[in-house]
């Protein structure tokens, strides 16, 4: 399986996801600024992957500080590191979750030497990366049990190994089902405008030898109407306390289509994607990206030069459209407000 990120103790090597599938190229981040830039430019993307990358960015910030400074302004410096990383992208809560976890470790151990602190932070980031893969495998098992022995699923965007430290969330369920001996076929939405489905999901599944068929986003309804889809599996960037889910633009339309055709619509996300501080999806910040993502493909204009453009990168799916939210702690169904807070208590 592909290795989205690799930490060697000094640098973070990332697959340059902008260049897939034509090229498997890598970018090496040597500083926290490099990591923030990699997240902003979507060299690395997908909620859990940007969380874990940011944790390594925090370690790089700390290591830079240890090389150049004494301890006087450590807290101020690391606040700057935190702020630079957290503002790289606004929607995925995993970024904040990972950085809060790192800064709690720092703040809880300020009496230690700089070297000991740096080592502690590095261990925390490594733990986070390993836990992410284990979490995905647990979610994979929880989700795979819900799928029939032979089935065809539809997925949107890329919620795979490339979007995590490994294995994937929605694609993790597919991998686990295949490992359990189920016969799984996948339809992948191309996912305009950034084409994560066409470029990343199709590539990643083909690398693993999993049966995948690519469609454009506007074909999903027709494919469902023809009875070809048994379940829809998507990831999440942030889940509000009431179960509303922010995920890649187009997810909401898919959920409506799935409801109309009576197809189960599953969201697969780690507990770290749940933001109990936000009551409903209305309060989730939705990133807007550049006009060029819509008006151009590569460098070729596909729209009039000065056309007005609206490019929200995510949408919010209302909780009542979601059949179940599959987490590493279990499968949650309505009423989400009650069941998600119970999940938090039992964690
Ligand atoms: O803009 P992206 O590519 O970062 O968006 C990614 C998604 O929307 C994924 O579905 C989500 O982060 C879950 S990934 C396990």
List keywords for this structure.
347 residues; alpha/beta; Four Helix Bundle (Hemerythrin (Met), subunit A); Rossmann fold; 7-stranded mixed sheet; 11 helices; 41% helix; binds 5-S-methyl-1-O-phosphono-5-thio-D-ribulose
Can you put this structure into words, describing what you see?
The structure is a single chain. By secondary structure, the chain is α/β, with parallel strands linked by helices. It contains eleven helices and 16 strands. It has two domains: 132 residues, Four Helix Bundle (Hemerythrin (Met), subunit A) (Up-down Bundle); 207 residues, Rossmann fold (3-Layer(aba) Sandwich), CATH 3.40.50.10470. The strands form four sheets. A seven-stranded mixed sheet has the order 6-5-4-7-10-15-16, with helices on both faces. The chain is globular. Bound molecules: 5-S-methyl-1-O-phosphono-5-thio-D-ribulose. 5-S-methyl-1-O-phosphono-5-thio-D-ribulose binds next to helix 2 and strand 9.
Quick overview:
The chain has 347 residues and is of the alpha/beta class.
């Amino acid at each position: 399986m592909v290795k989205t990120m690799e930490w060697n103790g000094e640098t973070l090597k990332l697959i340059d996801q902008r260049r897939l599938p034509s090229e498997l190229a890598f970018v090496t981040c040597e500083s926290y600024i490099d990591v923030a830039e990699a997240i902003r430019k979507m060299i690395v993307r997908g909620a859990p992957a940007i969380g874990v990358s940011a944790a390594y960015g925090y370690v790089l910030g700390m290591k830079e500080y240890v090389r150049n400074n004494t301890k006087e302004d450590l807290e101020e410096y690391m606040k700057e590191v935190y702020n630079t990383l957290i503002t790289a992208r606004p929607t995925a809560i995993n970024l904040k979750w990972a950085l809060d976890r790192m800064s709690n470790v720092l703040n809880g151990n300020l009496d230690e030497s700089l070297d000991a602190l740096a080592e502690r932070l590095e261990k925390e980031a490594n733990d986070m990366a390993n836990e992410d893969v284990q979490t995905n495998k647990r979610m994979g098992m929880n989700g795979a049990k819900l799928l029939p022995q032979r089935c065809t699923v539809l997925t949107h965007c890329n919620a795979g190994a490339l979007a995590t430290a490994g294995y994937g969330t929605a694609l993790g369920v597919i991998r686990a089902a295949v490992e359990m001996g189920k016969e799984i076929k996948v339809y992948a939405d191309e996912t305009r405008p950034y084409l994560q489905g066409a470029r990343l999901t199709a590539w990643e599944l083909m690398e693993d030898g999993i049966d995948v068929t690519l469609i454009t986003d506007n074909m999903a309804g027709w494919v469902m109407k023809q009875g070809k889809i048994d379940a829809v599996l998507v990831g999440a960037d942030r889940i509000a306390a009431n179960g509303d889910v922010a995920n890649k633009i187009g997810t909401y339309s898919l959920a409506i289509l799935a409801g109309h055709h009576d197809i189960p619509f599953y969201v697969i996300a780690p507990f770290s994607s749940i933001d109990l501080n936000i009551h409903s999806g209305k309060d989730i910040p939705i990133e807007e990206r550049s006009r060029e993502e819509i008006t151009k493909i590569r460098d070729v204009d596909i729209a009039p030069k000065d056309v007005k453009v609206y490019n929200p990168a995510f949408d919010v799916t209302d909780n009542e459209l979601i059949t179940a939210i599959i987490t590493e702690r279990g499968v949650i169904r309505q009423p989400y407000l009650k069941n998600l807070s119970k999940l938090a208590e039992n964690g």
